[in-house]
């Protein structure tokens, strides 16, 4: 555990102790032998010790200020600046020792001391450092400790620790593409999936005609006005919302798989929120309510930075929350769901799409996107939804939902 010397106490350095010991020997030797040279040497050393003590005790008043970001993403470095301010007279030599406590090592470790040249009256000295991040959670920087030394390096005075800062390390976000059903601003996927074989849809706007669009959706008044083929774009009401469920049940998760589950939840939220309303829930009671744009993600990512595996629970509370919610897609991040869990979350509604991201699995299964150790989520996610799109096109554009889950491994039967 990191500890610091007592603040404000004047202590000799190794050189100081050696010089004190030498003086202790020279004084009796000078008395016994009465050599003038010994007296001169002894007097010189005593004066040096006295001057060193005086310089350290009367040197400038030093303070520390720290500037660091409030939050970063796991894997990104924290760039911080420590400002040493001399509020008094000439400071003498200064050493700075910092402390860094990573999320996985809360006790922290002390860094090697940094030696600074003397600061003049009112001078400021900036020190920029980079701290890598290796885990989600709270990264604690400081407190740092300054020590003043005399020019001879005989004594030092350690100042009280100061300048603490906490940085939230948010979960890593994987870039996901190929979202189910596309979105208002997505590429051709949404257009390809919108066909007359689907259930009633809501008109949301016009867009340019693309190859494969149903000609019955062409909006002729807009064509007459613009001279370009325009089609009506529709959105299914039951697909307008996405629910992301973080499964933090202790019996289903290990420490490493839960970390991947948090990353998966953060990644899905980031990918979906730009196109459609999304909501994050967890088995531990977390509920962000509906998020409608990317600007609302910051506070959610801050909460995901410190979320932990919760007490044993089931999905009943999550299912009750979603029972009357206009959710068309549910993404469960954690483990493969049982048939009972799927029925519970879909509430018997076959129009709801359900997929689980299994953070322990390494191979794709029906209804499961694997994200085990060594697996790239972006790759398995894209493959799952590419297969879903291909199935819809093979079956005339109708969403395949008879079992309530996406079937990346093959058509549902």
Key structural traits:
single chain; 413 residues; alpha+beta; five-stranded antiparallel β-sheet; 9 helices; 28% helix; disordered N terminus; disordered C terminus
Summarize the structure.
By secondary structure, this protein is of the alpha+beta class. The protein is built from 9 helices and 21 strands.
DSSP summary, beta strand count: 21
Low-confidence stretches: 1-6, 181-200, 396-413
Number of separate helices: 9
Sheet with the most strands?
6 strands, mixed
Strand content: 25-35%
- Give me the secondary-structure category: alpha+beta
Shape designation: elongated
Name the strands of the widest sheet in spatial order.
18-17-16-19-20-21
User: What does the average pLDDT come to?
Assistant: 81
Helix content: 25-40%
SSE pattern: EHHEEEEEEEEEEEEHEHEEHEEHHEHEEH
The first-to-last residue Cα distance is 59 Å
Question: What value does the Rg take, in angstroms?
Answer: 33 Å
Describe the secondary structure blueprint for this structure.
Layout: E1 10-12, H1 14-33, H2 36-58, E2 62-67, E3 71-73, E4 78-86, E5 93-97, E6 99-102, E7 105-110, E8 114-116, E9 124-131, E10 137-141, E11 145-149, E12 155-158, E13 165-170, H3 188-193, E14 202-208, H4 220-226, E15 230-235, E16 242-246, H5 255-272, E17 278-282, E18 287-291, H6 297-306, H7 316-322, E19 329-334, H8 339-346, E20 353-358, E21 368-370, H9 377-394
Parallel strand pairs: 3-13, 16-17, 16-19, 19-20, 20-21
Antiparallel strand pairs: 1-12, 2-4, 4-9, 5-8, 5-11, 6-7, 6-10, 10-13, 11-12, 14-15, 17-18
Helix pairs in contact: 1-2
